Amino acid sequence: MKIDLSAKMQDALNKQIAYEGYASNFYLALAYWCDFHALEGCKKFFMRQSEEERIHMLKIYDYLSDCDIHPVTPAYEQPSSQYANIQEVFQKVFDQERSVTASIHSILKLANEENDFNTQQFLQWYVDEQREEEAVIRTIIDRIKIIGEGGQSLYYIDKEVEKINNNIIATDTGNVA
Questions:
Q1: pLDDT tens, position by position, 88-101
Q2: 8 neighbors 110 (Cβ within 8 angstroms)
Q3: Do residues 40 and 162 touch, judged by C-beta distance below 8 A?
């Protein structure tokens, strides 16, 4: 079934592929920043996030393909691998998620303007997903603020992030603890 997408919509969705792919690489880089700093729980969190962003990207590939449009595979900017501390890492993550949310909202606005009901419906999953992602990162940032800074604090931050990650995995698999 061919679904007509405007040139503007095709361009916007292809740009979103690039955002999601970059996010996947960004989280992968963060995972190994955490690995270098012996933050195993944070590494696991970011590895899962990297894979999740890759899945987000592939969903857009599939949507465009279902619309009989050949998706554009982008080149990605190199994510930073230098951060002062875990607080900066999670603030950058929050900023990244807010940027992705703004992009999704922009595409949804375009879909509304163009009366593109198929894309509106497709994007609703992303709207819900971004709300959840931002809430998780805000929770982590709040817990980091409560735990504080310092060597011993890193241990507790890492354990909190691992616990949050395990809860997300359990919820996703239906094994809520």
A1: 999 999 999 999 99
A2: yes
A3: yes
DSSP state of 84: S
CB contact at 8 A, 86 and 31: no
Selection from 150, 164, 167, 161 nearest residue 34 by Cα: 161
Determine the Cα–Cα distance for residues 24 and 164; give it in Å rounded to an integer: 19
pTM: 0.91
* 41 in any annotated domain: yes
Measured distance CA(32)–CA(44) in Å, rounded: 10
Token couple for 57: 């990207």
CA 32 to each of CA 12, 37, 89, 93, 102: distance values in angstroms, whole numbers, following the listed order: 31, 8, 12, 14, 27
Tell me how many domains the chain contains: 1
